[in-house]
Amino acid sequence: MDPRPAFERATVQAARLVAEVRPGQYEDPTPCTEFDVRRLVSHLIGATRRFAVLGEGGDALAVEPFADELGDQAFAAGYEDARQSALKAWQDDARLDDEVTVPWGRVPGRAAVAGYVMETVAHSWDLWDALGRPGTLDPELAAIALGTARQVLPEGPRGPQAPFADVTPVPEGSGPYGELAAWLGREPVDVRNRG
Fold first, then answer.
1. Global confidence as pTM
2. Minimal CA–CA distance to 25: which of 41, 3, 8, 4?
3. DSSP states of the chain as a string?
């Protein structure tokens, strides 16, 4: 399967959410407990920049995973620039079979793309939740990301070195995003109602 169309769809969805952030929301909490909204958006941009450099054949690990140099007013344009660069960098079909180095190891390009789909979709859910769940999210993207997450992340205890916490229970009726959030160690309950 070519994961690039899913990546493009995931970035369109993320771009919509980044553009919806209002000035008073940047310090709000997110389900990704180490990030407030500002840090989460900064990370979405930084991670997408890394992915673009990876597609260009560069050292993604040398790219800062945050875009803290951007002010809040520049986040939407910064994300759009990063996603367009990433889409362009991965246009060559041959890149899907190249071995590349990502933060989680050395993998074929197509596995790297799938990993960035998972990351983009998961952080889009984090942002959507933090913003009060505006509009709807693409359920097919969640199903794709969940498939990747189940392949690459163990269900059992993950330990402190893992970038995701242990699986949490999935409340009834959570849907594919709730299942993805739970698999990635988040509580799939509106962050504003967590007390």
1. 0.92
2. 41
3. ---HHHHHHHHHHHHHHHHH--GGGTTSB-SSTT-BHHHHHHHHHHHHHHHHHHHTTS-GGGS-S--TTS-GGGHHHHHHHHHHHHHHHT-SGGGGTSEEEETTEEEEHHHHHHHHHHHHHHHHHHHHHHTT--S---HHHHHHHHHHHHHHS-SS---TTSSS-------TT-HHHHHHHHHTT---S-GGG--
The identity of residue 28, as a single letter, is: D
Per-residue pLDDT of the chain (195 residues; tens, 9 = 90+): 899 999 999 999 999 999 999 999 999 999 988 899 999 999 999 999 999 999 999 999 999 999 999 989 999 999 999 999 999 999 999 999 999 999 888 999 999 999 999 999 999 999 999 999 999 999 999 999 999 999 888 777 766 666 677 788 888 888 899 999 999 888 776 654 544
* Residue 110 structure tokens: 């197509």
* Residues 146/176, Cβ–Cβ less than 8 Å: yes
Q: Which domains does the chain have, with CATH numbers?
A: 4-138 (1.20.120.450)
Residue with tokens 């989680």: 104
